[in-house]
C-alpha cells in the first residue's frame, strides 16, 4: 500500500461506522468475498471508500429478502468486480420485483391461514396449515396421512 493509498483507505472501525454495520459483519462479508480489504504491513485491514457502496448494496438487497448468496451472485455478475452504480441497482432490483410480489402473496396466504391457529397451539403436521405449509404428505393422497393409513 502506498502512502497515498493509506490516506484514502479506512480502518475496519471507521469503515464499519460509515457503513452502519458491526466489524464482525464486515469480517463475515469479507469471508464471503462480498467486500475486500488490503492488509497493512502490520496485518491490519484497510478498506477502499468505494467498498462502502458494496455494503450499501448488500444491506439494501438483504432488506428486500435476498440471501447473501444471492447478493454475491448479483455482485459477481458485475464486470471486473465493479462497484455497483445506480444503473446496476435499477437493473438488478427490477429482476427482484417478482420475488417481492411472491413474498407478499405468501404472507397474505399466511395471514389467512393463521386465523385457524390463533389460540390453538397444536402445531400438528396433519392439521396445522402454518406448520405444514408445504403439505409434506400431499403425495400420499388426500386427507390426513399420518397414523390413519389403511393396512
Ligand atoms: S396451531 Fe393448531 S392449527 Fe395451527
Automatic annotation (TrEMBL):
InterPro entries: DNA-bd_dom_put_sf, MerR-type_HTH_dom, MerR_fam, Redox-sen_tscrpt-act_SoxR. Residues 9-77 form the HTH merR-type domain. The keyword Iron-sulfur applies. SUPFAM superfamilies: Putative DNA-binding domain. Gene3D superfamilies: 1.10.1660.10. Keywords: 2Fe-2S, DNA-binding, Iron, Iron-sulfur, Metal-binding. NCBIfam families: SoxR. This is Redox-sensitive transcriptional activator SoxR. It comes from Glycomyces tritici. The lineage of its organism: Bacteria, Bacillati, Actinomycetota, Actinomycetes, Glycomycetales.
Amino acid at each position: 500500500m502506498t502512502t497515498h493509498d493509506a490516506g484514502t483507505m479506512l480502518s475496519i472501525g471507521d469503515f464499519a461506522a460509515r457503513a452502519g454495520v458491526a466489524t464482525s459483519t464486515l469480517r463475515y462479508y469479507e469471508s464471503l468475498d462480498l467486500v475486500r480489504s488490503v492488509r497493512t504491513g502490520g496485518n491490519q485491514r484497510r478498506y477502499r471508500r468505494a467498498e462502502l457502496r458494496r455494503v450499501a448494496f448488500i444491506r439494501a438487497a438483504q432488506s428486500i429478502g435476498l440471501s447473501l448468496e444471492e447478493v454475491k451472485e448479483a455482485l459477481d455478475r458485475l464486470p471486473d468486480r465493479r462497484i455497483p452504480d445506480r444503473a446496476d441497482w435499477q437493473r438488478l432490483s427490477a429482476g427482484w420485483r417478482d420475488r417481492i410480489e411472491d413474498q407478499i402473496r405468501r404472507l397474505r396466504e399466511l395471514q389467512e391461514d393463521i386465523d385457524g391457529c390463533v389460540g390453538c397451539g397444536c402445531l400438528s403436521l396433519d392439521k396445522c396449515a402454518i406448520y405444514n405449509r408445504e403439505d409434506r404428505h400431499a403425495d400420499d393422497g388426500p386427507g390426513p396421512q399420518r397414523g390413519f393409513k389403511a393396512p
